[in-house]
Design brief:
Length: 501
């Protein structure tokens, strides 16, 4: 690699410690990159693309590095946006940010201006806007307000050929013509559209629904990039439309004894349009050992959390609905009360608590089926089938997620010293996929595609998968951007690292 050809104003690193640091994200994978580049401006990104092409290296864009599916690591160049390209350039209902800006920093500034971006992942302290776009991020309030895609108005990005594209301006001819052709073909293809329409709300892969929604090619390009895990372009500027804040009007927490009642109650509460409708199982409550999400009753199966932001009447209606079930405990928290904020703190602590439990017990908490998307009506049946599967495979598991939009984070625990660990991982993944197929669900949900799940997309999407390939071939025919992720073909355990961290 001739680094004298990389003439940028930002920095680059190829020392062992930096390469090691960027060999991991928050998934189970480890791949040592060849080089880490920290661009200071768009021109640096553009020059890095030219350099990568000349050197035959791939590029992985990386913002916060909290990806859970191995999509922010790779063997070529890691383009780290967090270091310099992290500024908020316009603040208001129309906000403009650079990709490396940490989400929590943006949220703090929005709070001061009574504004909100509802799609806030629990990882907001570490994730950044570029990765939020890359994964089409969600948060508890996605149940009511949508994913990050609903708040992105336009983007600037650098193509794999090295062009700078602003999606509010005319696209390069090949992109505009190619996109129009793919869109026309897709809109005439009833079979594929039906498959895509039948997927759960937050199902990932390229955002094919954008073909139905946008007629302007710039808008279409922007919304295809959202959720494309860095495989279509390198985002350098993000423009968002924000909302005025909608404070809570009260929150209910109920512990259910069985999943059928939990599912029925969730569907009924969902009709009240809560701002958030969250779920955790008994093991999460036990391990989080929090102020609210703690359990006294061993018979409890599932906890439902419902926050309302329309009116306190809705809180009361929700309370009446829940009271009709065989619940073990029902809490009501006043808006803005210390208990309400403790509750959300407990909720954010679920994953760190599960990880702590693993460290203490020398277990691995591999995110391999942590991103399930299903139809809300199937919540209970899917959890019960997965529980039964894990019992048969003798694998301990915890579940939590977003009941309001059919998202389940299923976290199986593995013994790193166990015999046939890779085989066990492949079995858990494959058999979970088989269960999801039965319910028209997917392993590719809110954390989006990547090394641990994309391998199933071809089977899941059938003929519609061809559109993913056509889109990729149009934007990046040489597979420069993040290869081996959305179009992964290797067994999911390839490149996994089993060190307990
Ligand atoms: C504790 C924890 C809780 C989480 N909770 C949630 C949750 O509630 N909801 C949720 O959706 N996710 C959640 N996640 C997953 C993850 O945090 C999100 O997907 C987040 O949006 C990723 O942002 P990031 O900046 O860390 O992305 P990164 O890891 O940097 O990148 C993610 C993907 O986006 C691409 N990308 C990054 N920057 C760019 C760019 N400039 N241009 C093009 N592509 C780019 C990368 O190549 C990669 O494929 C959680 C993760 C953890 C560890």
């Amino acid at each position: 690699m001739d680094l004298s050809q990389l003439n940028i104003s930002g920095g680059w690193h190829n020392d062992a410690a930096t390469l090691e640091k960027f060999s991991r994200d928050m998934s189970a994978y480890r791949i040592l990159p060849a080089l880490v580049v920290e661009p200071e401006n768009e021109e640096d990104v553009f020059k890095t693309v030219t350099f990568a092409r000349n050197e035959g290296l791939s590029i992985v864009s990386r913002s916060g590095g909290s990806d859970l599916s191995g999509a922010s690591i790779g063997p070529g160049i890691i383009l780290n946006f967090k270091k310099h390209l992290n500024r908020l350039t316009v603040l208001g209902e129309d906000t403009v940010v650079e990709p490396g800006m940490i989400l929590a920093n943006l949220v703090n500034q929005l709070n001061d201006h009574n504004l909100m971006l509802p799609a806030i992942p629990s990882s907001s302290a570490v994730c950044a806007l570029g990765g939020n776009v890359g994964t089409r991020a969600t948060g508890p309030k996605t149940a009511k307000y949508g994913t990050l895609d609903d708040f992105v108005t336009s983007l600037r990005f650098i193509t794999a050929r090295g062009e700078v594209v602003d999606t509010t301006q005319a696209l390069p001819d090949y992109l505009a013509t190619g996109l129009r052709q793919i869109q026309q073909k897709y809109l005439a293809d009833e079979t594929s559209r039906e498959i895509v329409a039948g997927r759960p709300y937050i199902a990932g892969g390229y955002n094919l629904n954008a073909f139905d929604r946008y007629t302007a090619m710039g808008e279409l390009a922007a919304h295809l990039l959202v959720g494309s895990i860095g495989t279509l372009g390198i985002v350098t500027e993000i423009r968002l439309k924000l909302m005025k804040q909608r404070p809570s009007k009260g929150t209910l927490v109920a512990h259910f004894r069985n999943y059928d009642e939990f599912t029925e109650a969730s569907l009924r509460i969902k009709e009240l349009d809560p701002a958030a409708l969250e779920y955790s199982d008994a093991s999460c409550c036990r391990l989080v050992n929090g102020k609210i999400l703690n359990l006294e009753d061993p018979d409890i199966a599932a906890t439902l959390v419902a926050e309302f932001d329309d009116s306190s009447d809705k809180v009361q209606t929700g309370r009446e609905i829940i009271k009709a079930y065989d619940i073990s405990r029902l809490w009501e928290f006043k808006a803005g009360s210390p208990e309400e904020s403790s509750l959300w703190q407990d909720r954010r602590r679920i994953l760190p608590s599960l990880l702590k439990y693993c460290r203490q017990n020398n277990l691995l908490l591999l995110p391999i089926i942590d991103d399930i998307a299903i139809h809300v009506k199937d919540f209970g049946p899917v959890i019960q089938d997965l529980t039964e599967l894990m019992r048969r495979l003798n694998v301990e598991i915890s579940f939590y997620g977003h009941a309001g939009f059919g998202s389940i984070h299923a976290r199986p625990y593995f013994d790193p010293a166990g015999k046939n660990l890779k085989e066990q991982i492949e079995t858990v993944s494959q058999e979970s996929f088989n269960i999801l197929q039965k319910y028209r669900g997917t392993l590719v949900g809110e954390h989006n595609a990547g090394r641990s799940r994309s391998v199933y997309l071809a089977q899941e999407l059938g003929p519609a998968f061809e559109y993913l390939r056509e889109i990729k071939n149009l934007f990046d025919p040489d597979d420069l951007l993040n290869p081996g992720t959305l179009f992964a073909t290797e067994p999911i355990s390839t490149h996994m690292d089993f060190t307990v961290r």
